[in-house]
Amino acid sequence: MPRLLAQADLLPLNTFGLPGRARWLAEVTGEADLRRLMAQPEWAGRRLILGGGSNVVLTGDYDGLVLKVAVPGRRLVGEEGDAWWVEAGAGEIWHDLVMWTLAQGWPGLENLALIPGTVGAAPVQNIGAYGLELADRFAWLEAFDFVTGAVVRLDAAACCFAYRDSLFKREGAGRYLILRVVFRLPKAWRAVTGYADVAKELAARQVADPTPREIADAVIAVRQRKLPDPAEIGNAGSFFKNPVVDAGTHARLAAGHPGLPSYPQTDGTIKLAAGWLIDQCGWKGRALGPVGTHPNQALVLVNRGGATGADVRAVAQAIQRDVRAAFGVELEPEPVFV
Ligand code: FAD
Ligand code: EPU
Predict the structure, then answer these.
(1) Ligand 1 centroid to 133 CA: how many Å?
(2) CB pairs under 8 A, 24+ apart, for 170-177?
(3) Residues lining ligand 1, CB < 6 A?
């Protein structure tokens, strides 16, 4: 039976540093732990799956069982054909996996270096950065299904990946605990350097034909410059998704705001920059009590000390209200409120 902690302190387990206690907390190292826990009616009720806690907003105490995912392991499962196939346990640290695959000579994840959190959470919001998404390198995953009690294998189509979205944020929310993920890393490697910040960083380093490791290093440098380190100031990364609007809405907004950053999507819609919209509303570096936006990145809400989930919600709602009033655009939070 996995070790159970009563009244466990969740503050050190979420990168925003928000306070809260779990009625129970258990570390899960594999399906056997889950089967044992679920066999007890006492634990089979309300539950929350937690990885590194870098994309959650804790709104208070959790009256249920928190399953802290700690499934270990990483290995090459195949190298036949045109790709390397790499499997990692859900509890592995994402950034460590990225650097390990590069050291092994299996590139492909370098643009996603330094994203906080675990491997098991990466498919949940289909993590993405600097021109690449998890979905671009995903083969399949194995998950424990709390409805049937079986372990299922889900491919990319079943996971319904989209921008910061998947099955696990919708119909499958709370139903599956992801145990391990398999990545497909094509042997025909091609650098992804289209994102302006990365291209600029490589140019500044005078790297014309970058290796995978040089791309990782450039991404790490950009991220360290632009994003606050949760070890220094509590945060959950981008607090809102970048809103996607139709062409008509975009034309109306662009006419009134010549500097509007716009990213056309393949389906004709246009992605806007939530950080720019928030910045234009005068919110960059501004705070309401213990929660504010980061002075270098208005899209990141930060805990200036002693904040609660309610403080975070108050600032988020004030920002949503101001952006709605100025631009008529709705901002949707990216982290999960629990
Ligand atoms: P948690 O916060 O613990 O959980 C997030 C959600 O996933 C919760 O709903 C949880 O229940 C669920 N979950 C966790 N593990 C599992 C599992 N094994 N099975 C099923 N459900 C699970 N994200 C990006 O996409 N791109 C970025 O560039 C980026 N930059 C960031 C920068 C900073 C400074 C921070 C703090 C965050 C950033 N994020 C980014 C967000 C975050 O890193 C990712 O969402 C990450 O995948 C969260 O991992 P986690 O283990 O901390 O998940
Ligand atoms: N901008 C401003 N002011 C700000 C912040 C941004 O004007 O305060 C402008 C920038 O100048 C730029 C545009 O907004 O023109 C976009 O900014 P940036 O390139 O920094 O990217 P982002 O849209 O803020 C997204 C992801 C990040 C990811 C980076 C790199 C979302 C919600 N966020 O940020 O992901 O790392 O691109 O790909 O999609 C996360 O999800 O937690 C996260 C950090």
Answers:
(1) 13
(2) 174/47, 174/49, 174/146, 175/145, 175/146, 175/147, 176/143, 176/144, 176/145, 176/146, 176/152, 177/28, 177/34, 177/49, 177/67, 177/69, 177/90, 177/120, 177/143, 177/144, 177/146
(3) 15, 49-56, 69, 90, 115-118, 120-122, 124-125, 127-129, 168, 176-178, 227, 230, 235-237, 336
* pLDDT-wise least confident of 40-54, 125-139, 323-337: 40-54
Task: Determine the pLDDT at residue 45.
Answer: 76
Terminus-to-terminus CA distance in the chain, angstroms? 26
Does 238 participate in catalysis according to the annotation? yes
Q: Is 164 a catalytic residue?
A: yes
Q: Which atom of ligand 1 is nearest to the CA of 336?
A: 9
Least Cα distance to 109 among 99, 123, 121, 124 occurs for 99
pLDDT-derived band of residue 63, with 50, 70 and 90 as boundaries?
very high
pLDDT score recorded for residue 40: 83
The H-or-E segment that residue 138 falls in is strand 138-145
Nearest-ligand number for the alpha carbon of 128: 1
Instruction: Name the strand (E) or helix (H) holding 320.
Output: helix 309-327
Closest CA to 53 of 78, 40, 70, 76: 70
Ligand nearest to the CA of 334: 2
Active site residue: 137, 164, 180, 184, which one? 164
Q: How confident is the model at residue 78 (pLDDT cuts 50, 70, 90)?
A: very high
